[in-house]
Specification:
With about 350 residues, this protein is α/β, with parallel strands linked by helices. The chain has a single domain (about 15-359), classed as L-arginine/glycine Amidinotransferase, Chain A (5-stranded Propeller), CATH 3.75.10. Helices cover about 25% and strands about 25% of the residues. A hairpin with a 4-residue loop joins β10 (about 170) and β11 (about 175-180).
Length: about 350
Amino acid sequence: MSTMQTREMTPAELGFSMPAEWEPHKATWLVWPQNPADWPGKIATIRWVFVEIIRKIVAGERVSLLVNSSAEETVARRHLTKAEVDLAGIEFVIHPTNRGWTRDTGPIFVRSRGRGAESAIVNFHFNAWAKYPNWQKDRTIPVMAATRRKKKLFDARIDGREFVLEGGAIDVNGRGSLLTTEECLLDQVTQTRNPGLAREQVEAALKGSLGVTNVLWLGAGVAGDDTHGHVDDLCRFVNPTTVVLAQESNPKEDNYRPLQANRERLQGMRLENGEKVEVVSLPMPAPLRFDGLRLPASYANFYITNSAVIMPTFNDPNDRLALGILSELFKDRPVIGIHAVDLVWGLGTLHCLSQQEPA
């Protein structure tokens, strides 16, 4: 009798791939702010910022809102009702969490193409950015979501071991190309997600799990980034052939050299079809610091909803410039600023907090 185990087919082998964020959503997943340690001293303010985020999202799609308990659901309902947000567009999901960063902890969806297209979820074994001890509850979210939605759950693995990835570490154009950074996924010293894995193995895991064919490696992320190099503070696809890249104009600033180096890399890169990547510069706000800490303020942390693009703003002269640049790139939906000076105290903003579920 054979003792060989049959290897489960990957999403890519079964015809699944991750859609681009601008493709139609069924819903956006969020976690209601309930851990005061995420925003020390500011949790009450953050809840009202969240109400505004939800208001903008429910204008065009449902929100699946995770709450720790029925008591926390009551708190959320009270806030939303007071602000006259339509509760009919919100699905309250009672599920305990450690943190509120749904981009990294929430379900990452892939979808099959063609007639009868269906979606599934990939479980990437969250480990709190290889930095914090509290991840056990967050790690259960993709499993819960797959059960709730009655979706197939793929186990992300490479060479027989679990593969760790956060949603903020990647960005896709929905045609086969994926952006990520070496600082996040290849580092073997600081915050190592997958110890001992070489670039080729990481690429194989990304291709197998997300159905991409072309991995574009940038270098380092932005200063103050607690995740050690997430690409969603740095460079984002805005259509299948174009990216926006954060750029620092002050040569004395910490971000200046790393962002210039990433621009040089992109100029030599090719998309999945061999075309050059079109690069549009997105300014950086002036450095934000609070309580002695550099914060990862970046306009690249925008989120694309069905009815709008919501972009973090920082009471900065470049807010208007960044809104204008994104408005020129997204002709099919308005670009709306959300005040994020308090939000970024949690070391992330709009994209970090949200995860899309494709239609």
